[in-house]
Every structure is written in C-alpha cells, then in structure tokens.
C-alpha cells in the first residue's frame, strides 16, 4: 500500500487553522509572490519532515531486526533427510516413505526411525517465518501513526477538508480486516452530509458500533471512518 501524501499540521495549530498547500494539489488559484515564497518554504519543510520521519522508521526497523537475530541466534546445523536425498520421481510419488510404511505395517517402527522435520518445517525455520510475518503486520498497522493530525481530503471530492484522527481496524464492522481512517471533517464528503441520521454512512463522533475509536478535537458529529485508500 503506497504511503499517502499528507501535509503535517503546525504543532501549535488547531484543525480549523488555515493550512497552506501547493496550488496544484487542491486546485487553488496561483498565489502571489510573497505567498508563493511562503508556500514553497512550507512545502520544503514538509518534505524534510517526512524524509526525517521515514529515516527514523527505517533505523528503528533495522535495530529491531538485529535484536530479533540476536534473540533467535544462529541457525542450528541441518542434516539432510531421506526426503531431501530422494529423486524427483520419489518425491513426486512419495516413494521415499516406503520403508516407513513397511515398518509401520510390521509394527516394528520406533520413534528413532521416524524422519526428522525437513528444513522448511522444523521449529527454527517456521518460528522465524512466523515472527517476521507477525512483526511485519504490526509495523504495517503502525505505519500510519505518524500521519495522525495531518490534513486530508476525500479523493473523489477534492473540495473536502478534514484532519486525520485515527487509523486502524473496526472490530465490530462487517469488514474487520479493512484498514480505515478516522477523519474529523471540516467539509465532509457529500454522501456523508446527505446520509440519514443513524445510517451506516452518517457522520459520528468517533464511536462506531459502541466502540470508541478516537476522540475528536471538538465534541461533534462530524467524523467518519473511510478506507485509507479513499483519503489523501
């Protein structure tokens, strides 16, 4: 999922403070000389801020990966099994298990006779694979945290304007695995404004299906949760 292009709010500003954006992003008319200089400076500062943030995230990920390597230690030595030494024909038709079947049928097979786990199924390999996947999922879910507090808009309606308050999963929804963005709108999308009170598309105050997802800056009914790919 590509990272969105957000413009970070000033640390001392509230969501209703004016925010400078490049004229081509939001379709505003071209600014004057002084305003253009200010907008260019703000844009450069935003870029520097994003680059620094990405660099810090990468350094943190690298450090965590090194800590995991130290935790798991060196990979134990592996002795090729009968399955590894079997020909492709024997692997295709499971010919390498014939001796084990004969011993089992005769009732003479013992625990020592059983083949050890293969390289791809032994505990060390599967544990590391699971660990990498779990932490990759956690990292992906936290990747958006740095954009909370940024100005966003609804992709289909560039005239909309709001502030990103939360990114996560709504456990009580019909799509609990869909990553959604909780936005407090100044100018909500049209379908949200026109939705009937109490409907699924209606604006809310950060509470969805009885679950408090985020706290809006002001106690109002001007929030919504939309898929992250629909905001920018």
Please provide a written account of the structure:
By secondary structure, the chain is an alpha+beta fold. It has a domain at 147-230: CAP Gly-rich-like domain (SH3 type barrels), CATH 2.30.30.190. Helices cover 37% and strands 16% of the residues. The protein has a 5-stranded antiparallel sheet with strand order 1-2-3-4-7, with no helix packed on it. Strands 5-6 form a two-stranded antiparallel sheet. The chain is elongated, with a radius of gyration of 27 Å. The relative contact order is 0.12. Residues 1-33 have low confidence and may be disordered. It comes from Leishmania guyanensis. Residues 148-232 form the CAP-Gly domain. This is p-glycoprotein. InterPro entries: CAP-Gly_dom_sf, CAP-Gly_domain.
Task: Describe the protein's topology.
Layout (H helix, E strand, L loop, with lengths): L6 E2 L14 H4 L6 H40 L9 H4 L2 H5 L5 H9 L16 H20 L7 E5 L2 E13 L9 E9 L2 H4 L13 E2 L2 E2 L10 E5 L5
Antiparallel strand pairs: 1-2, 2-3, 3-4, 4-7, 5-6
């Amino acid at each position: 999922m590509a990272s969105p292009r957000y413009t970070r709010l000033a640390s001392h500003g509230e969501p209703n403070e004016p925010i400078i954006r490049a004229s081509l992003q939001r379709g505003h008319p071209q600014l004057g000389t002084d305003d253009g200089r200010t907008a260019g400076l703000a844009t450069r500062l935003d870029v520097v801020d994003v680059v620094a943030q990405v660099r810090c995230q990468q350094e943190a990920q690298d450090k965590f990966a090194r800590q995991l390597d130290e935790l798991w230690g060196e990979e134990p030595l592996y002795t090729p099994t009968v399955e590894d030494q079997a020909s492709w024909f024997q692997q295709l038709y499971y010919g390498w298990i014939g001796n084990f079947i004969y011993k089992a049928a005769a009732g003479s097979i013992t625990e020592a006779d059983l083949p050890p786990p293969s390289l791809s199924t032994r505990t060390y390999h599967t544990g590391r694979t699971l660990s990498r996947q779990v932490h990759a999922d956690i990292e992906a879910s936290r990747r958006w945290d740095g954009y909370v507090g940024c100005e966003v808009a609804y992709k289909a309606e560039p005239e909309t304007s709001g502030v990103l308050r939360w990114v996560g999963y709504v456990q009580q929804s019909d799509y609990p695995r869909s990553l959604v963005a909780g936005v407090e709108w100044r100018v909500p999308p049209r379908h949200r404004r026109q939705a009937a009170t109490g409907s699924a598309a209606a604006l809310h105050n950060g509470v969805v299906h009885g679950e408090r997802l985020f706290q809006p800056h002001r106690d109002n009914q001007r929030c919504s949760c939309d898929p992250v790919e629909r905001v920018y």
